[in-house]
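Handout, section 3.2

Students often ask what a structure token actually looks like in practice. Rather than define it abstractly, here is a full record for DUF2255 family protein. The first block is the sequence as you would receive it.
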Amino acid sequence: MTTTSTWTSQELAAIGNAEELDIASLRRSGELGSRRTIWVVRVGDDIYIRSVNGPGSDWYRGTRARQEGRIQAGGIEKDVTITDAADDVNDAVDSAYRTKYGHYAASIIKAITSPEASSTTMRLEPR
């Protein structure tokens, strides 16, 4: 797992404990796209997101153009770089999703930890 994050302890705690995260991708024009509300997990000193609907989701495809955006969660607003997560982190991210969101229906947890959703796991790095 990569641990080169430059999140502060306060940012990691606030974002990691937030129930949801709002993300807006940076468009090729340099403008922010519309915000989407998604789930977010913390693994160690890193923040991860993924698309429950897999790679076909509009917001996920929007992250592919410039791999930059802005997030809001837990009182933190930050510009971020959005990178594909290493494959070896998916088990830990799955576990984090199950732990954090386990109070939701099993079908929802199964969707966010499915191979399709896992294929979209991304790491957020502050800019």
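Discussion prompt for tutorial groups: The mean pLDDT is 94. How would you have guessed this from the sequence alone?
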